[in-house]
Design a protein that fits this description.
- With about 280 residues, the protein is an alpha/beta fold.
- The structure holds ligand C2E and magnesium ion (MG) (3 copies).
- Ligand C2E binds next to strand 2, helix 2 and strand 6.
- This is Diguanylate cyclase.
Length: about 280
């Protein structure tokens, strides 16, 4: 009996795995056509400095308008793009588009672009970035390259060389999602980062005294190391108040704005961001 049960469980498991694999293949197939069919689009989310109430950076966040599935989340298609290598072509499109868009913004506003470890494993990643900037007419110091610590774990030495070349050409480097994975404090002084972005997970957990202690230490460390710091995923006035009292000035989160289409950027640049807390 138990054998039969086992077998039917296995069959069910097998069927759902098959369905998932099929969905993945379908997405992969459609993703190959997405660039050519003009289905990819960049949204932009502001990083706001609460001292000036202004945007100082927009993060480019990729969206895919699938003809039948609607808006597909990058959490779904980026991993598939990485597995298949499609991320290389998509990443090039993202960088070119983001640089071109940013070239039209005021010169004191930067653009942040996410890079996958797969892109960084390519020998030509620096050359690719160094081509994209002049092609778009964007000064190198207006581009921030965002990477997660996943990049630092494998091939630390090769990554450091690439980072140093990027830094020499003026591009800025941000460590994204800090605290979400196997974060090591040593990353902060062994790689030439300009900025760290503290992960949303910390913000959710601010009421936990231990979590608060960790985030306070990271904020102090960033200051001592002369690193810019952004906290991601700020959704409430209360979170903003606590983080402001710890000295944080740069925020990204739904409290200020979700990612929005390019067409709405001009308005975000013109209008100051006011939270109740920081109302003059
Ligand atoms: P990320 O780089 O950490 O981007 C921040 C994510 O947090 C975005 O999700 C953004 O919409 C979300 N977010 C911002 N503020 C809040 C908030 O207050 N509350 C909540 N709940 N979420 C907030 P999104 O756009 O879905 O992107 C997810 C991830 O996909 C990104 O995380 C990034 O790792 C990846 N991704 C997006 N675009 C690209 C791209 O062009 N290239 C690569 N390689 N990865 C990308
Ligand atoms: Mg990011
Ligand atoms: Mg992040
Ligand atoms: Mg993330």
């Amino acid at each position: 009996r138990s054998k039969a049960l086992g077998r039917s469980c296995f069959r069910q498991f097998d069927a759902s795995m098959q369905a998932e694999a099929m969905l993945k293949r379908q997405i992969e197939h459609d993703l190959r056509a997405a660039i050519a069919n003009d289905e990819l689009e960049l949204f932009y989310q502001p990083i706001v400095d609460v001292r000036s109430h202004r945007v100082n950076t927009f993060e480019a966040l990729l969206r895919w308008r699938h003809p039948t599935r609607g808006l597909v989340s990058p959490e779904v298609f980026i991993p598939i793009a990485e597995e298949t290598g499609l991320i290389v072509e998509i990443g090039e499109w993202v960088l070119a588009s983001a640089c071109r868009d940013a070239a039209a913004w005021p010169a004191d506003i930067r653009v942040a672009v996410n890079f996958s470890p797969v892109q960084f494993r390519r020998r030509d990643v620096v050359a690719m970035i160094e081509r994209a900037l002049p092609a778009a007419g964007l000064a190198p110091d207006r581009l921030e390259v965002e990477v997660t610590e996943a990049i630092l774990i494998r091939d630390a030495e090769a990554t450091r060389i690439v980072f140093e070349r990027l830094r020499r050409s003026g591009v800025r480097l941000s460590l994204d999602d800090f605290g979400s994975g196997y974060s090591s404090l040593s990353y902060l002084n062994t790689f030439p980062f300009d900025k760290i972005k503290i992960d949303r997970a910390f913000v959710i957990d601010l009421s936990n005294p231990k979590s608060l202690a960790v985030i306070t230490a990271v904020i102090n460390l960033a200051e001592r190391l002369n690193l810019s710091l952004v906290v991601e995923g700020v959704e409430t006035e209360k979170q903003l108040e606590i983080l402001s009292s710890l000295g944080v000035t740069n925020f990204q989160g739904f409290l200020f704005s979700p990612p929005r289409p390019l067409a709405e950027i001009d308005q975000m640049i013109r209008e100051p961001f006011h939270s109740h807390l920081h109302e003059a």
